[in-house]
């Protein structure tokens, strides 16, 4: 039995308590990293604090298709390792802001996938709980927005092994048909 099955059996209050505990644990793990990060479907932005007064030429930054390293020249890196997914190197950049923060912008190759972490050996976030920024969804016209929301719902349902919106509609129509025709026996029917 998976943790997801256990989760489904919990009461609403217990689910909320578990979600809250998971969120607090996740926040603590992310806060302990030597950087902060955020993402959109197509990109990841990372902020690495450095010593005030740091100059760009004193930094050693490597951005590769599947690797990232940030640190001072001649010292162990602040962060280094394998990226959890591949990036477009030519569209990824870094800048030093106010001589105290390195801002790294990574362009994802797969623009339809949320990252669980930046470096594979760092703690993961629960990507099923990511809510895309509404400003972008609301920019879409009604029909497109509805289509995108349906796709997001169906994707989430599939990940949880639950029926998609189309499958739910079919089940609803079938149930209505059964109720309106109680004289028919569906016990041996194979419906697909």
UniProtKB/TrEMBL annotation:
Record GO biological process: protein folding
Intracellular or extracellular location(s): Cytoplasm
Residue ranges, compositional bias (Basic and acidic residues): 8-28
InterPro entries cross-referenced by the UniProt entry: CS_dom, HSP20-like_chaperone, NudC_fam
Chain spans, region Disordered: 1-31
Source organism superkingdom: Eukaryota
Keywords per UniProt: Cytoplasm
Recorded GO MF terms: unfolded protein binding
UniProt cross-references to SUPFAM superfamilies, sorted A to Z: HSP20-like chaperones
A GO CC term assigned to this protein in UniProt: cytoplasm
Pfam family, one: CS
Function: Required for nuclear movement. May interact between microtubules and nuclei and/or may be involved in the generation of force used to move nuclei during interphase.
Record protein name field: Nuclear movement protein nudC
Family annotation (PROSITE patterns): CS
Residue ranges of every copy of the CS domain listed in the record: 30-119
């Amino acid at each position: 039995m998976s943790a997801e099955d256990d989760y489904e059996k919990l009461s609403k209050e217990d689910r909320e308590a578990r979600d809250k505990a998971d969120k607090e644990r996740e926040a603590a793990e992310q806060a302990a990293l030597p950087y902060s990060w955020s993402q959109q479907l197509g990109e990841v932005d990372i902020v690495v604090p450095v010593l005030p007064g740091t100059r760009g030429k004193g930094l050693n930054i490597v951005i590769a298709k599947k690797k990232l390293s940030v640190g001072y020249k001649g010292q162990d890196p602040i962060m280094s390792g394998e990226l959890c997914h591949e990036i477009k190197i030519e569209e990824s950049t870094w800048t030093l802001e106010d001589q105290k923060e390195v801002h790294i912008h990574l362009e994802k190759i797969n623009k339809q996938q949320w990252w669980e972490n930046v470096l594979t050996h760092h703690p993961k976030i629960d990507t099923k709980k990511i809510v895309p920024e509404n400003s972008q969804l609301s920019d879409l016209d009604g029909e497109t927005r509805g289509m995108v929301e349906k796709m997001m719902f169906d994707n989430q349902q599939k990940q949880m092994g639950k029926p998609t919106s189309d499958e739910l509609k079919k089940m609803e129509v079938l149930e209505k048909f059964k109720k309106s025709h109680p004289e028919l026996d569906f016990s041996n029917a194979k419906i697909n």
